[in-house]
Amino acid sequence: RRCRGRRPAFARWASTSTRSWRPSSNGMDVILTGHTHDSIPVALKVGQTLLLSSGSHGKYLGRIDLEVKGGKVVDYNSTMIPVFADVIEPDKEMAAKIDEVRAPFEAECNRVIGKTEGLLYRRGNFNGSWDDLICEGLMEERDAEISISPGFRWGTTLLPGDNITIDDLYTQTGMTYPNVYRLEFTGAQLKEILEDVCDNLFHKDPFYQHGGDMKLK
Predict the structure, then answer these.
(1) What superfamily in CATH does domain 92-208 come from?
(2) pTM of the predicted model, to two decimals?
(3) Which residues, in sequence order, are CB contacts of 217 under 8 Å at separation 6+?
């Protein structure tokens, strides 16, 4: 209702892809893009289109206010509002449903399997301490010399001295391709794999970029 007369769009692309697509979206005033894991503090203006990305996993709520005159956007202001779980009152009905669904698994999810010695995080395309821990575990359990794992940028960060629970482990490894394989590769094959991943990540044409992760240990 509040966007009446304006033309907003919602895109599940990273900001670079959205910026490349924008010239073909004639007359688009605002594009809200949500696939980028990294938040953009203020809206970007590309041509006459505003792009706003508030990150992922509910870390921020993006807000953009538009001043419209004569059927055109003449001014705007945007910001990101941090979402703090400990200061927002949960929806009682939803909280009860979550508790109900988790109840049969709560004991196992809260089972402590270790304790952190340092910060455990996943924030980069190439590495993170969670990635290091997972890859080292794969090499030890599979008796491998090299471990390759997707370098995701998601999941909860654990502080030094925190307990590591099964829930934390599932948070980092719950994905649609969780299988682990032990195979033999030549150096040439490894080089080809890594170059292919690099091309997916950093191709000069954003429409050929996909995957977003790379980790070799």
Answers:
(1) 5'-Nucleotidase, C-terminal domain (3.90.780.10)
(2) 0.69
(3) 131, 132, 135, 136, 138, 139, 146, 147, 148, 149
